[in-house]
Specification:
six-stranded mixed beta sheet; homodimer; six-stranded parallel beta sheet; elongated; 37% helix; 423 residues; alpha/beta
Chain lengths: 423, 423
């Protein structure tokens, strides 16, 4: 039996879950991996706070030094979130020869190279499977299961809050505002939901996931982003009538001109495996040049699922004789990115219900080489009518230019939404 | 760069695919894992056979000793299939201090303890991710990604041939015979399809998968098995009218009385993630006590997908300083199995279209404590009519006894099918 002494930085939702898993599955972990995990000290802000976890008060401390300066602690698990003081603590642990396990996507996507370099130069490990898609071990699958592949594309639902909101709008015809309120009541969305609904949380995660998948650093600034706040039940209904389901997707592809990475609401066919991912579940769909299409599905958040990834990382770290480093981080290999990408598009306009409107719009689309796949004018109301187009594959830049021009037509009252469609 | 010299036993479909992946992804593997894989010798039966793979004739040999006795070869990848001579060759390689990677479910499910023990006593590795679900790294996920969990249940579609046949019957109303013929024409089913359609192939794989998931040996003899040959378009249509989809499932659960393991056609709700797995795709749905529900989806067969698992295993083995062994195999820990398991059931009977039939059947069900959830009599034909029952959760043994008694009723012309329903 190999005994490993661990210190926790933080004991909130995920930290408490990880503590409970270690206690509950002690026997299974010993039997399968021959490892006994002992959590020696746990850094908290408030010793008197009532906690759901079974973590005993005797091992809690308000001094980070009790964790970071204890030579017996060989692995530090960080659950604080945010950039500071996490970055400082993680660097201190690594430089003291401790391996670090973290679920912190913010500190990783901001200071990843610095942290990985510190880990490598100290010969210790940096593990972060929990930072993307909670309980789904997608990063570990890239590193430990799919190594034979060149990954060519990935498409993922990696934010449970927005997937819950979109599922409620789709299933129950709720407005965006009411669905968001329900998510907040259920504890699935923060009081300030901006990180989730703006797509920023997905951008952080896609930066980590796509960098690992494509072996080059894709910084968050390089990722195009569009949130879900403008989505209405109408969009989802019109899409459904065309056999399409709306999801907030993270998309990254290896193309001949470079790597494209974008986050936006996206229509996918109802038959696509991602269309069935409902509520707070997450899924990542990958294409590797050997394995072909592969999808991983599970809970993207929550104390126990995210704790599952953290504790599995602790076991992997404790079993490893040497650790794995991503050479693109150590060598600072940046992605060759392309801002131009192709997609089909769904366009919803509000137009005057009069002759000639369609001709004006179609003329502009045609001038940009955009070919219409289908066009449906829905019932008019007060002299205006919703007009929905599906157009064939076109560059996002040509699409943007055409839309800008269409928006200036006097017969067009509003461009309500332009949403990529992935087949 | 760590150079690893590999020998192949066999160069058929999967072996050829593995060879091609190693060549094609040489740069990516070097960049990500710092490993250069050199395939030095390849055992074949016929040097002159035309092959799809790029494997050059110069490295082929018809003598196993050229692979097994070459001290430079540190990893042997076995692609022969079947029990002998695979078992002998694998043991010889392990005893010569070589690590073995195999996709061979037959030799594993028959001689697993012997092989694992030989690997452990020689301090070399035995890797077999490709033996279950082809390209889906489900075994590796258990060992390398989900270690924090006690796995409580698993349900899988792990045979692409039968899933293709059932999808064709469901989508196109084909008869079982015609769907099987089509699968044979497409190269998805063997000339003798018994292994697949009888469920035996699934039993082999479930034995390996469930043993690893539950950390105890579940031999193939302990697994209840029912094939798909009796399925008709009627069953699938009647199920569809109840919101159910039919799949050939491998099921294993940890229960209070022991572990249950069974393979049979099963109805699942149309909304279950496994219901959408179509054609030759595979998927495994697991429940862990930390991660909750998780599903892995991908290609369960084929040269490149299965080759992906083999080559990933080679990379894992080449990177490992020490290898992982399953202690339940070394210590011969057998599963405590239970033959009794509970499920809801679908029952299709052909009955005489006359008064009193329903009363007789309902009386028998009631005597065995079986509660009817719904009952539909379809249109009569020639004085007989199909009668379909859905019954609530009941033990498989009570169900069997009730069905035996119902079959003896003179008004019952045939018990066409009794199919478990998993909600």
């Amino acid at each position: 039996m190999h005994r490993v002494t661990v210190g926790f930085l933080g004991c909130g939702n995920v930290g408490g879950g990880a503590y409970d898993i270690i206690q509950r599955n002690r026997e299974e972990i010993a039997l399968r991996d021959g490892i006994e995990i002992v959590v020696k000290r746990v850094l908290v802000r408030d010793l008197n706070k009532v906690r759901r976890s079974s973590c005993p008060r005797e091992i809690m401390t308000t001094s980070a030094s009790d964790v970071l300066d204890d030579p017996e602690i060989s692995i530090v698990a960080e659950f604080l979130g945010g950039i500071e003081p996490s970055r400082t603590y993680i660097l201190k642990a690594l430089n003291a020869g401790k391996t670090v396990v973290t679920a912190n996507k913010a500190v990783l996507s901001s200071c990843w190279s610095e942290l990985e370099t510190a880990a490598a130069s100290n010969g210790v490990g940096l593990y972060y499977d929990a930072s993307v898609a909670g309980g789904i071990p997608v990063l570990k699958n890239l590193d430990y299961c799919l190594q034979a592949n060149r990954i060519d594309s990935l498409v993922g639902i990696i934010n449970g809050t927005t997937n819950f909101i979109l599922t409620k709008i789709a299933d129950e015809g709720m407005s965006y505002e009411n669905a968001l309120k329900l998510a907040q009541e259920k504890g699935l969305a923060e009081a300030d939901p901006t990180m989730d609904v703006s797509g920023m949380d997905v951008v952080y995660k896609l930066s980590i996931l796509a960098s690992l998948a494509f072996d080059c650093h894709i910084p968050i600034e390089a990722i195009y982003r569009q949130g879900i706040a403008a989505i209405t039940p109408d969009d989802i209904r019109f899409g459904a009538s065309l056999g399409l389901t709306l999801k907030l997707l993270a998309v990254a592809k290896r193309t001949q001109t470079g790597i494209e990475a974008h986050v936006h609401p996206t229509f996918i066919p109802d038959t696509h495996p991602l269309a069935g991912i409902r509520g707070a579940f997450n899924a990542v769909f990958l294409n590797g040049n050997a394995v072909g299409d592969i999808m991983l599905y599970g809970k993207g958040a929550g104390a126990l699922p995210t704790g599952s990834s953290v504790v599995s990382d602790i076991i992997t770290a404790a079993s490893a004789k040497t650790h794995r480093y991503s050479s693109f981080l150590l060598k600072d290999v940046r992605a060759k990115l392309t801002e131009e990408w192709e997609s089909c598009f769904y366009i919803r306009l509000t137009v005057c219900d009069e002759p000639g409107v369609l001709a004006s719009i179609a003329t502009i689309l045609s001038r940009y080489g955009i070919s219409v796949a289908s066009c449906v004018q829905h019932n008019a109301n007060d002299g205006t009518a919703p007009l929905v187009f599906l157009v064939h594959r076109v560059s996002n830049i040509a699409m943007r230019s055409a839309i800008d021009e269409i928006a200036r037509l006097p017969e067009v009252k509003a461009v309500n939404n332009t949403i990529p469609v992935e087949y």
